[in-house]
Specification:
Elements (H helix, E strand, L loop, with lengths): L1 H10 L2 H11 L11 H22 L1 H9 L4 H16 L6 H17 L2 H5 L5 H28 L2 E6 L5 E10 L5 E7 L4 H23 L3 H21 L2 H24 L4 H33 L5 E6 L4 E4 L3 H10 L10 H7 E2 L13 H12 L12 H5 L8 H4 L7 H34 L6 H12 L12 H28 L1
Parallel strand pairs: 1-4, 3-6
Antiparallel strand pairs: 1-2, 2-3, 4-5
């Protein structure tokens, strides 16, 4: 009995990865049930202890894994993270140290994960056992989000420190005095909602085409699921997520073009793949536009429902009269959408995503420039994660209001550079560039099938130009990227090994 438990929990820990991915999807349920935050916290601690136990139990395996030549640069990155903590020990916060440690932890656990599991499970079993629970959970998250959008439900949540969050559908006022619609759903950021959907779309396509869906129910569920995720991605109105999709498609198309030129014996297969890739891009474009217009047609038939939730007092109010609007104004200034009525929405709403400020990118460039200017004060080791406000107040000679305000970076590359400086940034960048060149060469020279996992990781890296947490943090996107990269590198090694044996 004990040996069986040890095997499930430590030796073949597929359950760990299934639960961790499921947990990392966590929607903003705390908006409606604030007390669940405590559960999240302690459950995460439990997962961390489980992960540490895995590392200790498989210590020799992990040591051998990271001693391999292609992973040795990552050891240098781990050193850079530790150096950052020590260099800033006088100023760095406990939360920043925790995030730094979690950054290393995720890489140590998730990058070798597939290779570890492949000793005991087939490819099909690994992906189905790990991700099927996440697919089911994500289905209900996306369905709930879509229903809130179609019913025209806007939710304003006053959280800790009077911070305003949104759920459901949000109307953002533009410079043109029109409003653009954003699906927040059960997430606090439409860009993250869109990227979640993007990764699940590629994963779903991978399971359908590579692993194979055997039952009619599986095929029916995944058909509905992918249409649902595509609708959420469309209605989130995230230009970053849509750009990430098209860039990944274009990148893969170019690789196939090179393959067509240099591997003429595979020209017929390559041409078919190029048609598939082009077809995927066109289908995505058509369906995203269709979902936007079709959904808005339904939404505009429903009167706006505006709900205020004050977490501190567990208060739920429907914002219909002046007195309730005044309650909101006690906490937050300048929330324009609360005064909207149905006639205003019909007349002044634009489905096209526009900037809500005079600067292209909604102020992102200013944030990035401020962050880079601040990093010049500690260029080699940075300041540690989530330390922008703390660091900015130490230098009176800099005019960096975005950093003083503690604004999020909205860019994973800038976040990485700020957190761990040039040393951390370059070591990780070198590793990523080297491995993606390797994978790209493999596609040109050897691979004959379209790998949606490869496309999904490319899309995620492109999207990281607009998101904070791809390289720093303990987030779904980060875990997904490293797990899938580990899978791709493992499979590529097997292909190279087989070709080498064939040649000999």
């Amino acid at each position: 009995m004990f040996e069986r438990i040890k095997k499930i929990l430590l030796k073949n820990p597929i359950l760990f990865f299934s639960i961790y991915f499921l947990f990392s999807l966590k929607p903003k349920i705390e908006f409606f049930v604030p007390s669940i935050v405590v559960f999240y916290k302690y459950f995460h601690y439990g997962l961390m202890l489980w992960g540490i136990s895995l590392l200790l139990y498989n210590f020799k395996y992990m040591l051998d894994f990271f001693k391999e030549r292609k992973y040795i640069v990552l050891v240098a990155f781990f050193g850079a993270v530790i150096a950052t903590i020590l260099y800033n020990i006088q100023y760095i916060s406990g939360e920043s140290i925790k995030t730094s440690v979690l950054t290393i932890f995720v890489m140590l656990i998730f990058l070798p994960a597939y290779q570890l599991l492949a000793k005991y499970q087939s490819e099909s079993d690994i992906f189905k056992k790990i991700f099927y629970p996440s697919f089911i959970f994500k289905f209900f998250i996306s369905l709930s989000s879509l229903i809130m959008y179609l019913l025209n439900i806007s939710i304003f949540v006053i959280g800790e420190n009077s911070t305003l969050y949104y759920a459901g559908v949000r109307y953002v006022e533009l410079e043109s005095k029109q409003f653009t619609l954003l699906l927040y759903g059960l997430y606090s950021d439409p860009n993250y909602a869109a990227v979640y959907s993007l990764t699940f779309l590629f994963l779903g396509l991978f399971l359908w085409n590579k692993i194979g869906l055997k039952t009619k129910f599986e095929k029916f569920f995944f058909s509905i699921f992918m249409l649902l995720e595509l609708s959420v991605l469309s209605l989130s109105n995230s230009r970053g997520a849509e750009l990430a999709f098209y860039v990944s498609i274009l990148f893969y198309f170019v690789l196939l073009l090179f393959k067509l030129i240099f591997k003429k014996e595979q020209s017929s297969i390559t041409k078919k793949l190029m048609i598939k890739v082009a077809g995927l891009g066109v289908t995505f474009l058509v369906l995203t536009q269709f979902f936007k217009f079709a959904s808005f047609t339904i939404l505009e038939q429903n009167n706006p429902t505006k709900i205020l939730i004050i977490n501190e007092s567990n208060t739920f109010l429907r914002l219909n009269d002046t007195s309730e609007k005044e309650i909101l104004k006690q906490y937050v200034d300048n929330v324009n959408e609360i005064s909207l009525n149905l006639n205003q929405i019909k007349k002044n709403t634009s489905l096209a995503k526009e900037d809500s400020s005079t600067e292209f990118g909604n102020g992102r460039f200013t944030i990035w420039l401020d962050a880079i200017e601040l990093t010049t004060k500690s260029p080699f080791f940075g300041f540690g994660p989530a330390m922008q406000k703390n660091a900015a107040t130490r230098f009176d000679d800099l005019e960096i209001p975005e950093m003083i305000a503690g604004r999020a970076f909205h860019n994973s590359f800038v976040h990485l550079f700020f957190s761990f400086g040039a040393v951390g940034f370059l070591t990780l960048a070198i590793w990523f560039i080297k491995e993606y060149i390797r994978l790209s060469n493999s596609i040109i020279k050897k691979s004959t099938e379209m790998d949606f996992i490869f496309l999904g990781t490319i899309a995620l890296i492109v999207a990281s130009a607009f998101l904070d947490s791809i390289f720093v943090n303990n987030d779904y996107q980060q875990m997904y990227l490293y797990f899938m990269l580990g899978y791709l590198l493992f499979q590529n090694e097997n292909i190279e090994r087989k070709l080498e044996l064939t040649t000999h």
